[in-house]
């Protein structure tokens, strides 16, 4: 019996430039690092190798990340706060200044901090805008002036918020997941357990802890060492991970990349572990069909040290490109819109 995992509401949106690499590892080593209390199993994968199971290594460049609340994202909240503040003070000068300061403060707390500070930014923007607008616009009244200020403030707030997220909302992340099954008394479901995650964004780590996604993100430095190669290291360490794209199969090649719908493991809910040990699930929804997305199959060389994934030794492997007859190959996706849901605790 399959237990359906309910999808939580959307938490945030972003755009990814991603390199996705399935890596085959020893099944027994992988079983040994899975948390015992959550009854995770490793079923055989189609096209798999005997004694091997895939883990999914993803290298992301995240940009324009913003939080969403009730179908309005942080840019929208900044726009709304700017408009509301400008309208409320009642005069053209007061409205303009109130909305402008409100928009700037909202962007500083919302858009500029990207994924995690949207609602707080809205509150700061509204408060600061109201105070400044009241101070300078107390003597200027009139509906026309307020409406002009509201429109100006709304546009300025959104522009600053969007610009801020593009500047501070771009960062690098590495995620390693394992497709597996989770059993419970109510049935079983397929999940992607988050084995490890690294990021060079302090805000991303902070938000992950505050909202309780259970990804256990670690701080890392991501360095581009060649035009198509990166190294990942922690403070004071030798590189933990080296990834080099050795070849790209672009459009027109005799073997085209496989269609995203042939990679169901990318649509599995993400299973994380909270510090308390409870299981937490979230969904990362990828819009491969969006008109901004560009796919290219890639031949990739991956080298890891034992410190990158505790429980595994150092390794080096070459991953063949993703093609219609090799659904476990590597590929790149640029301009990929994604939505991340809020986390939800799942019952044992």
Would you kindly provide a written description of the structure presented here, covering whatever features stand out?
- With 348 residues, this protein is α+β, with helices and mostly antiparallel strands.
- It is 28% helix and 37% strand.
- It is built from six helices and 17 strands.
- The chain has a 17-stranded mixed sheet that branches.
- The longest helix is centred in the middle third of the chain and has 26 residues, at 143-168.
- Residues 71-143, 156-168 and 251-256 have low confidence and may be disordered.
How are the elements arranged and paired?
Layout: E1 10-26, H1 27-33, E2 40-41, E3 52-69, E4 72-73, H2 74-89, H3 92-109, H4 118-137, H5 143-168, E5 171-184, E6 187-199, H6 202-211, E7 217-219, E8 221-226, E9 229-233, E10 241-249, E11 270-273, E12 279-282, E13 284-286, E14 294-304, E15 315-319, E16 330-341, E17 344-345
Parallel strand pairs: 6-7, 6-11
Antiparallel strand pairs: 1-3, 1-16, 2-5, 3-4, 3-5, 5-6, 8-9, 9-10, 10-14, 11-12, 12-17, 13-16, 14-15, 14-16
